[in-house]
Write a structure and sequence with these properties.
Radius of gyration: 18 Å
Number of helices: 7
Largest sheet: none
Strand content: under 5%
Order of helices and strands: HHHHHHH
Number of strands: 0
């Protein structure tokens, strides 16, 4: 009986994936537009704290409640990613943390390299979800690699890579927006309205999430 009650309570929690994807997509779009030189400085910080950060982190917590280890890990981690990045920028810019200009770009390079490592194995496991989710992690992987190499190289060639990373980041955001929209539409209709593809990696003939 207790197990049935817990299962019923878990099923009563709406799927948090569309919210997590939307928070990730919007914040990624703003930061990537900034990296591409299209958007002003700090336009992304508020979104990083409250939408990409808080809302996405909560989506991760709700995913834990639903027993989905992949989305729980992904949304919680990238929610913390936005909290961490926004906090670092706020400390450097507004509280004058004792770092030099070159140290900032080098620090951002290490920051993105660390998350690229995380994203690499999540990219592999995302092949077990569907094509849309895999596309989100694939474009994000390319974005993070371009950015951390660009930040490590500093001015000149590095700035060019950051610009390209911004463009790929915008593509990442658009893919994530589509996946979020598809999850909302399909979840409301109870059937597939917008295609998201199938799992590319299946084990024992069964799709697993």
């Amino acid at each position: 009986m207790a197990q049935e009650m817990r299962a019923g309570a878990a099923s009563a929690v709406a799927d948090p994936a569309p919210l997590g994807l939307a928070g990730f997509a919007l914040t990624t779009l703003l930061l990537s537009a900034h990296n591409a030189g299209w958007a002003p400085d700090f336009i992304w910080v508020g979104a990083a704290l409250f939408y990409g950060g808080l809302a996405q982190f909560l989506a991760g917590m709700w995913s834990f409640r639903r027993g989905n280890v992949f989305t729980a890990t992904a949304f919680s981690t990238y929610g913390a990613f936005w909290f961490s990045l926004a906090t670092y920028v706020i400390l450097v810019v507004f509280f004058k943390a004792p770092v030099k200009g070159a140290d900032v770009t080098n620090s951002l390079g290490w920051f993105l390299l660390a998350f690229a490592i995380f994203n690499t194995y999540m990219l592999v496991w995302s092949a077990r979800i569907n094509t849309a989710v895999f596309a989100v992690f694939l474009t994000l992987e390319v974005t993070e690699i371009l950015l951390f190499i660009g930040f490590f190289n500093g001015s000149g060639a590095g700035e060019g890579l950051v610009f390209i990373g911004g463009l790929v980041g915008i593509l990442t955001a658009l893919v994530a927006f589509y996946t979020s929209a598809a999850d909302v539409a399909n979840g409301m209709a109870g059937r597939y309205i917008l295609p998201v593809g199938t799992a590319m990696w299946k084990e024992g003939g069964r799709r697993r999430s």
